[in-house]
Write the structure tokens for this entry.
Amino acid sequence: MEDSGCGIEPEHLDKIFKPFFTTKQELSGTGLGLAVSLGIIEKHGGTIAVDSTLARGSVFTVTLPIMPQMNGSLEQSTIG
Ligand SMILES: Nc1ncnc2c1ncn2[C@@H]1O[C@H](COP(=O)(O)OP(=O)(O)OP(=O)(O)O)[C@@H](O)[C@H]1O
Ligand SMILES: [Mg+2]
């Protein structure tokens, strides 16, 4: 997912996935959006990464395994 928004301060990048971290004004953000997203993605064996440039925008890249419990089998069948 990519946007052309305000971008994220470099010193915030290691905090944005923490619960309740928000730069939104009081009462307008819970700081839970990315923390909940990370939790759901990790439960599915995936990852989320962020790349952001101030005043240009942000890119969030989510990767999800097709069938996490069968990764080994799928690799073996591809090779074999
Ligand atoms: N696309 C984005 N562009 C710029 N900053 C972002 C973006 N997504 C997240 N952030 C930064 O990460 C912080 C945490 O994001 P998160 O989604 O967890 O909470 P929130 O957006 O502040 O609150 P809520 O999700 O409840 O609306 C934001 O407050 C903001 O500083
Ligand atoms: Mg949010």
